[in-house]
Amino acid sequence: xxxxxxxxxxxxxxxxxxxxxxxxxxxxxxxxxxxxxxxxxxxxxxxxxxxxxxxxxxxxxxxxxxxxxxxxxxxxxxxxxxxxxxxxxxxxxxxxxxxxxxxxxxxxxxxxxxxxxxxxxxxxxxxxxxxxxxxxxxxxxxxxxxxxxxxxxxxxxxxxxxxxxxxxxxxxxxxxxxxxxxxxxxxxxxxxxxxxxxxxxxxxxxxxxxxxxxxxxxxxxxxxxxxxxxxxxxxxxxxxxxxxxxxxxxxxxxxxxxxxxxxxxxxxxxxxxxxxxxxxxxxxxxxxxxxxxxxxx
Length: 297
Description:
The chain is α/β, with parallel strands linked by helices. The chain contains eleven helices and nine strands. It has helices at 8-21, 35-46, 67-76, 79-87, 103-106, 168-179, 193-200, 213-224, 241-246, 270-281, 287-293, and strands at residues 107-108, 119-125, 132-139, 145-153, 183-188, 206-208, 233-236, 252-254, 260-264.
């Protein structure tokens, strides 16, 4: 089950067992980026290889799936993601990851009023020689989420080496104090657990972010989805200029043969990764997540 999430090595081990037992395998799953599976199984079936068969069903063909839920998914998800998740489409994403990003819709300037927000929280992508990126978010009614503040700079240490030194801990503490009781957790890149532990030890509410890449991208894309000229995601253009510039350059990587890998290109991605950490790790607050996940965490 969920073969699209498996590694090719697992499939190779299955083949060995099948050859030993003269057996058959049934592989099931929802399409996700898995070029090896397309090459080794799907394309062979489509090319007429008698040892392979490829069968797809659309969710609309399932009599037990609520039609109202399917209509909701079609409305709130970007079209390509909907076709993948609910119509078994294998079309590749290419180029820009957040294709619906539109500066005129998603980047605005407004007067920030903390009283408008149900909860305020932060995210952190670590960096030293390259940018470390800290963001502050606020959730309004009806899943309307704002990216409020940005600190994106290289060379900032996680904690002060000498008294009074500017560090990520002091920056986080300033925002935690600024919003007091409304400020929830800071979700930080889990690749630096020692930084998280050191900052937590001085009283900052910080923990490792959920770094599910493709699931996080899907969630952010759903918030960024444009419907009737509006989006649930709003970025303060004056306070977060680097994020506004980086989102259009956040792209899928290309492998050695020139094919889209559907893994994000690891280049100039610090700001966008931090945003993904912050939004996806706080998904429990969003009603749209209940719709996407079917209420299952």
